[in-house]
Amino acid sequence: MRESFWVREEAYALRSWWDEINESDKWQDVIFYFLCAAYAVVSAVALVQLIRIQLRVPEYGWTTQKIFHFMNFVVNGVRAVVFGFHTDIFLFRPRVCTLVLLDLPGILFFSTYTLLVLFWAEIYHQARSLPADKLKFIYIFINCAVYIIQICIWIYLWINDNEVVESIGKIFMAVVSFVAALGFLIYGGRLFVMLRRFPIESKGRQKKLHEVEWIISFCGLSGYRSGLDWAGIGRDPVKITSDLQVWPQHVPRLDFVGYVTAICFTCFLIRCIVVGLSAFDSSESLDVLDHPILNFFYYMLTEILPSGLVLYILRKLPPKRISAQYHPIR
């Protein structure tokens, strides 16, 4: 009896604390400005990395790696501006303006990280001798469909501010996040398992596995489409070059794929659950000023921490000297 009383008291105290912070203008400013600063830091890191890559390999155009870091810079930069001016943005009229500024970076985040899914899908399909020529078309088609549907929802809300349509928009965003999580689970998981099963019965085969991992995590993200053929995945022999031999300290562990898969799958799954719940329960809404604690945990767990961790994992630079047979993805 006494234990249940203390449980109720603790629950009441926690609820009071939660409500007090949510209703406090001071705490709202502290939390949203902290999010602004965190996003600004991640955006700056992505920009610095983009500049480093450009200085490292200036002879290549917009490779996959450069696009990935540029989009990270844009997404996190927009978020920083939004939370920096949160007092004005959350009170915009018509309300659809607020929804656009909050949802657009989320869609760009989806496009940014599904770029990794596309790359891993290409790796897996080519390694298994499966057709891979339509994967990029599927990626572009899915992204275009997401943007078109979301724009249609925004236009409707601009004409007629309808709570039902707004809830449909949130459900749509939850579905988009689920698709991204599923993509990471399927192709990230398959690629991880495939590399785990790679034959390593000799030192030569162990070296080949390390070369494959190196190419997957760096050459591929740098946009070198012929990296698979160069590595000889599914073929023999592997073509060993001096460029790789002088970079032994940059050979990553196999866990590279596993870490990124786990991080991205988790963040998109959390996004799917939270956004889906907010569509049916207004008390879980993220696009209002008086839910700063929910916004803090949501954006930290679904964007800031995942982006920071992935940028850290991908911090290595591509080698300066690249064989003439490498070509950037066009």
Task: Write structural notes for this entry.
The protein has 330 residues and is mainly α. The chain is built from twelve helices and no strands. It is globular. It starts with a helix and ends in a 17-residue tail after the last helix. The chain crosses the membrane at residues 30-55, 67-86, 106-125, 137-159, 171-193, 256-276, 296-314. It is a multi-pass membrane protein.
Write the layout of secondary structure elements.
Elements: H1 2-23, H2 25-56, H3 64-84, H4 86-89, H5 96-127, H6 135-159, H7 163-196, H8 203-219, H9 227-231, H10 242-245, H11 255-280, H12 292-313
Helix pairs in contact: 2-3, 2-12, 3-5, 5-6, 5-7, 6-7, 7-11, 11-12
Features:
330 residues, mainly alpha, Rhopdopsin 7-helix transmembrane proteins, 12 helices, 74% helix, globular
Tell me the domain tally.
1
**Main β-sheet, in a few words?**
none
Portion in beta strands: under 5%
Taking pLDDT < 50 over at least 5 consecutive residues as the criterion, the unreliable ranges are: 214-252
CATH topology term: Rhopdopsin 7-helix transmembrane proteins
Percent range for helical residues? over 70%
* Rg calc: 23 Å
CATH architecture: Up-down Bundle
How many helices? The count is 12
| Derived structural class | mainly alpha
**Cα end-to-end separation:** 70 Å
The count of β-strands is 0
The quaternary structure here is single chain
| SSE succession | HHHHHHHHHHHH
Organism: Phoenix dactylifera
Keywords: Membrane, Transmembrane, Transmembrane helix
Membrane topology: Multi-pass membrane protein
Pfam families: THH1_TOM1-3_dom (PF06454)
